[in-house]
């Protein structure tokens, strides 16, 4: 996620909460993976990315015997998305190594990463995110270990130069993978009704696992940090699968530790070099903190954490509440310049959607109050806002927003999730909106998730499954190992940042299909829990399928 | 030096000699240097390189307070040439470091290195020698330490990217310098008759010191290894100045350790990863090993080393001797395809020069025999070859070579150094050759040294000094801190490798003026030994002069 700068509100540090989060820091699990094959990419108009990987004539076992000189290059395929540290042994082939060897290494999450050049990329976020490194090695044999962490499945190796007197050979190429979730970590094995759903479920879990480091990162490639909007969805997927409550709790307390003087929470925190709030602020993310805490307390049973966080939960909705017109009880986006997100769609009118988000969050506060045996503070406001929400349903029974009566998925999803309307009204307005030709569609998996969750909320399982199969299934068919930050079925090079080479292809906010498939949709997809499986076993199954596809 | 590939002759390892060389491995001295100033380069047609450094408006003390963002750059001037390891502290300036920082660091020995781009360099040796690094830093503050050794005076820092949210600042920039010669190492302080001679002497010593690492390297930037032709000149300069006999002995025994089965020696050895011969072979370098050993024994008094090396000295001239026509007693270049070097000048006819080199070397063998109280083995051959050498002097009294009677400095220098002719004949032919309009001139400092040494041999001190002042003095006037691999007074971008960006500007074979100035020329330049001075003091004096020049 990259964001709009906001005014700076001083931080009212809660050092006790910071200590709680510090004590919950995980020891990262580490394991090694080797490349599965050498691949070449050929143009293929039928493929989503326009290229197709096929195994090189040289089997991976021959790699140590292959010598590469100036201008040579190859791509290694590890068969599975990984987050970790690359090492290899570089050997000299020739009488003497009479010059350094310069290599360019490009870490590919997608085939585009390893088939497009990384020069002259025009992007409005930092080009320092680009996944290439140029390194020079003076002497061989050398055990090369790159100090930075990368997120990748493919490794493109370009030999920029050796000398006329020697070439280089590569052996012992390995990625030391890292995650808060070990290979031995167990989760339910679920049998699905189709290979596509099985793969969607797997990609969701892989995405989640690779984002689970010392915090829930939004994307292990970019920007590698904790955003509250992503955290909420990751936590939901986590409850359905890996059930690491400590990491969720740690992240919740990180946000609560950097509460600001007006009681609001930043949209994002930096864990390193020391815990600190980002200057990014998003009104809807702030309020949704209440939902994150509620979900955590319900799933974990950790009521005492709920008690501790109660003041934070109360204050996190204040800024959002300040947007409500006391006369109309409507959320008015224009009451502040503060950023309301919902989705990246540029023309989106956010009044109705924000109204829905706030009701959803106030209800979460009320539910948490009940669990904590406190008086629910927002019953009256919820009732008034729910009543007011009826005007977001047009006479044609679609969800509308703003002075232009804009029809959008965002408005529909959040007003349905807020359960502000009778279920039959909500259901038909939602279905009408989705099928409306003029409706503003989601641009992000984040909003697609909320559309799916809204559909499930009103029992529209088939419609939800169609989106999952089309949207997330589209990524799987395009070759995804993990789900992406951004997916435009029509344009493989679409990017919110000006250039696809700065996109993240393992991104937290797209990891939720498993939450639905293993949750409310389980029966609808004839899913059956067949026992337990480890993450290592799931990875091995994936590698078998992914490298077997083209062989 | 970069070379022509030769046939491979198996190595007849002398492991005893290798052990001797291993035991002589120096502990490198280490000391830190900080940048003296921020500089900007402006176009200046009067300057040799076409640019002139001037101090930036920001004093170096302000560096830590300066923030640099995408596209910014600056150049640090350390005021003296160094070989070592760069470190600095990188700080984030801004609310948060929300992206990595990508930097390009270019290590400049010359102003061209830090003012020309390093992309798309066309050179027939490896572009991996180019002195730039691209690094990515994920988190600040960060103590950045680059693992490779660099050779430089200037450091160009280009901020490829940060992000719109932060910039970076640099502090604690340091180079940990390394050499076999410490800052406390003492040598004679010599007062010269002119500042130019003082600077030429100093640049010679700096060149020597920066090449003195675990071996005598040809150039610490490129190619960082031991060539016998360079070693001979370095040893001579060393005897006049730093007098580190152990490092010379170590290098001599490294060559003797990798003797080949036919008794010849490679032109170059690799010290790391383990001692091994280069495949490069040069006939004249092989024979000159005898001269290196003789010089060492004479200067150090280490006769026992001479005893041990006697068989190697005997065998190192064999391949050269095989080029002598037994009927004419003339060295015939065409008797083998083996590489005869003398100089890089492409049209040079090498018959006469090689004849001179061989006589010179056979005389060295004979002299060593006398020291070792052995029978001189080549008295007869020397006499015959000296007699035959007369035909290299033309009727016009210039030195000629080959069927075309080519006139060249190379022929003249080596036939004079061989002392094959009566001194008056040699002197006049040498002076006539040097002043002849058609004479093939030297392309390398290596041959210029031999011209100077030849002039001194026949008492032509003024003529020698003129060359030193013009040629080495020309480098000083152009801003040299150390002497270069290649210097063309007419063309600052001349290169034996296709592009000046791959030239070495601290190169062993140009370090000899100090050998002559402190030796046979001392009286001619009214040089006076005034006491002792340390290398550290010499460096400080240089820095004061070099950074004071434009202020």
From TrEMBL, chains A, B:
Alphabetized SUPFAM superfamilies for the sequence: Six-hairpin glycosidases
Ranges for domain Glycosyl hydrolase family 78 alpha-rhamnosidase N-terminal: 35-177
Protein name from the UniProt record: Alpha-L-rhamnosidase
Organism phylogeny: Eukaryota, Fungi, Dikarya, Ascomycota, Pezizomycotina
Organism in which the protein naturally occurs: Thelonectria olida
Pfam families with a match to the protein in the record: Bac_rhamnosid6H, Glyco_hydro_78_N
GO molecular function: catalytic activity
Residues of the Alpha-L-rhamnosidase six-hairpin glycosidase domain: 193-516
Gene Ontology biological process: carbohydrate metabolic process
